[in-house]
Amino acid sequence: MSLSCRLDEAATHDVLTTIVVFGASGDLAKKKTYPALFHLFQQGLLPKRTRILGYARTLMERDQFTKRVTSFFKKTDAQDDIDRFLQICEYVSGKYDVAEDFQRLRGEIDANEKAMNKQDGDERVHIYYLALPPSVF
Known about the structure:
four-stranded parallel beta sheet; 5 helices; globular
């Protein structure tokens, strides 16, 4: 499967998928990005072995992150769906100009893939979404 495939096609295959949301603590991520990812999750359009890693400079505990991520979900969304979605989400804090922080992020990606039973030769897809202000570049 090529990287040009549609995400819904990847969802029909057992493709190991990691989505990294840079700027995960910001307004764009909480108002648009995470609600859109949740909607894809609800519709079964994400591959079964998907993990979503939020990355931002803000130091946050897990409960702060989950509260922020779900703050713009619809009030009618089923709590069971939200709980299952949050099981595939994690948050990593780090700076954008420190190599060691990106190495730590890579370690988290590798650990998540191992937890998803990555085998040698498995296809895998990494999607990097930049929800960042221009000042970060």
